[in-house]
């Protein structure tokens, strides 16, 4: 299993290119194809215009989005032509409220979506729904890259967050190409349930499954000594010099939208190294 079709989404020609650079690198390593979706986003409305908006105002908003997507598409095309990786660049103009539908349509045909960290200084409001749409609507794994980070070709340590959930198992399965490359995969189990199915051997069945795929595993049973699970996981990744975290993505349904759950959001707000998530 390899990632043959990789997608990244760009909404700003001047935004950091960490995710685009990583996607390009992964395509080259996997002899794959890179798809880049450039979006011109109308950030002033949430899917509709109010009755007081006149034709000139609407035309100005749309024209601005058209200029932004043109600049983004030109910048991406110039960069990828120089790299000579197989690629395709497409573009669309969408209201902020419709960005999930547009993203999900493209992401569902990809093996992996690579995105910049959705939170932090200079991040627009459109990045979060793009990540959510890929995870919850397209059910495609998302590799989230903090600014300036990259994945080495030879991974040393990968930390897998394991809580026996179907989301965590989905993330592990979709992360197999990375796990098989790693020198060691550390299965992190935080406060395992005393009456769970794996109470006598937390993480043991997952370790066995991965070992049959040629993955070298170690199991770390951790106590929740910090207020948030994401903090415990991040500290453990730092203590073990991990280069990648793999975890399930959780969400809450609100008005038929996917809203990131607490641990998922906290991890994405404070991640210092790449995180691969799947739902």
Name its key features:
about 280 residues; alpha/beta; ten-stranded mixed sheet; two-stranded antiparallel sheet; about 25% strand; globular
Describe the structure.
The protein has helices spanning 18-30, 55-83, 99-107, 127-137, 166-174, 176-181, 204-211, 229-239, 262-270, and strands at residues 5-10, 33-42, 87-95, 112-116, 142-145, 157-161, 184-190, 217-222, 244-248, 251-254, 257-260, 275-278. The protein starts with a strand and ends with a strand. It is built from nine helices and twelve strands. β2 (33-42), α2 and β3 form a beta-alpha-beta unit. A ten-stranded mixed β-sheet has the order 3-2-1-4-5-12-9-6-7-8, sandwiched between helices. α3 (99-107) packs across α4 and α8 (229-239) crosses α9.
- Describe the strand arrangement of the main beta sheet, using strand numbers: 3-2-1-4-5-12-9-6-7-8
Would you count the extended β strands for me?
A: 12
Largest sheet: 10 strands, mixed
Rg computed from alpha carbons, rounded to a whole number of angstroms: 20 Å
Round the mean pLDDT to the nearest integer and report it.
91
Low-confidence stretches: none
Mass-distribution shape:
globular
Judged by helices, strands and strand pairing, the structural class is alpha/beta
Helix content: 25-40%
Task: Report the portion of residues in β strands.
Answer: 15-25%
Oligomer: single chain
State the end-to-end CA separation: 19 Å
H/E order of the elements? EHEHEHEHEEHHEHEHEEEHE
